[in-house]
């Protein structure tokens, strides 16, 4: 059973102008999931908006996913607004120009020669039931590994929840190493003790968390594997429930980021019929916690030099590791886009 809900927060409080300012670029270089595989059917055009760009996704004649700029280079029509897929090519609804999965124009009606133009795009990988794109210059030097739980029969179909907040994707990722917030937002008895490891574009935070349920403290262990700036897989193991949470963080534009959570619950071996009920209870609790975080995210400002307590050293470690995904010059250019500044309020 697939459960889905999108809940965008409404700013009920006046926003401090500093809440829209960040010293780092808006789009860290790396892999981002923009679709679940089942959302991209053959013969269909899907409109997207990420990285401050209008995009489309479709499948070529070989069934492979491609993600391209949405606007036709001929006269600017949006290919997702009435465009069709014919024989693995996307057809412009305005003048019938056709573009292949590689972005190249393959036909322009009434032209004596096919124009040598193309749609900008991204390197694409598809596995684990997700379509990933690489936002950054050149070809990617590293990959997101497959997530085995996504194809295991031991796990239920995922709970799928998407939200958007006015916050930088880096701050979304810092949540996993913000030990103190686990007590106040997630109901942990005390901040978890964590270990931090990193290896190039990969990092791991692992530890133990304890949650009080009625009169008992329930101990769980967790391993959070980070694959670049946009993908994190958290495996939580406990005496009651084991969950693999796939956390996908993606920049939308200068002011908004998306968090998509896919929760894969391990089916109880002896009582598998309880799985639907467990999913409902788990999802209700998870949604409540996410709403609390959204309310905070929508109004917090970025503290470049936070006053960290000794047990909060993981925030400093993550920021240092995360910095590798930004260009050294302080600006970044997503392929096909003008260079943007690090201020969320706009700029080109």
Automatic annotation (TrEMBL):
Keywords, alphabetical: 2Fe-2S, Iron, Iron-sulfur, Lipid degradation, Lipid metabolism, Membrane, Metal-binding, Oxidoreductase, Steroid metabolism, Transmembrane, Transmembrane helix
Superkingdom of origin: Bacteria
Named cofactor requirement(s): Fe cation
GO molecular function: 2 iron, 2 sulfur cluster binding; cholesterol 7-desaturase [NAD(P)H] activity; metal ion binding; monooxygenase activity
Domain Rieske: 31-133
InterPro entries: Cholesterol_7-desaturase (IPR050584), KshA-like_C (IPR045605), Rieske_2Fe-2S (IPR017941), Rieske_2Fe-2S_sf (IPR036922)
GO cellular component terms given for this protein: cytoplasm; membrane
Catalytic activity: cholesterol + NADPH + O2 + H(+) = 7-dehydrocholesterol + NADP(+) + 2 H2O; cholesterol + NADH + O2 + H(+) = 7-dehydrocholesterol + NAD(+) + 2 H2O
GO biological process: cholesterol metabolic process; lipid catabolic process
Subcellular localization(s) per the UniProt record: Membrane
Assembly with partners or alone: Homotrimer. The two-component system 3-ketosteroid-9-alpha-monooxygenase is composed of an oxygenase component KshA and a reductase component KshB.
Family: Belongs to the cholesterol 7-desaturase family.
Name listed for the protein in its UniProt record: cholesterol 7-desaturase
Biological classification of the source: Bacteria, Bacillati, Actinomycetota, Actinomycetes, Kitasatosporales
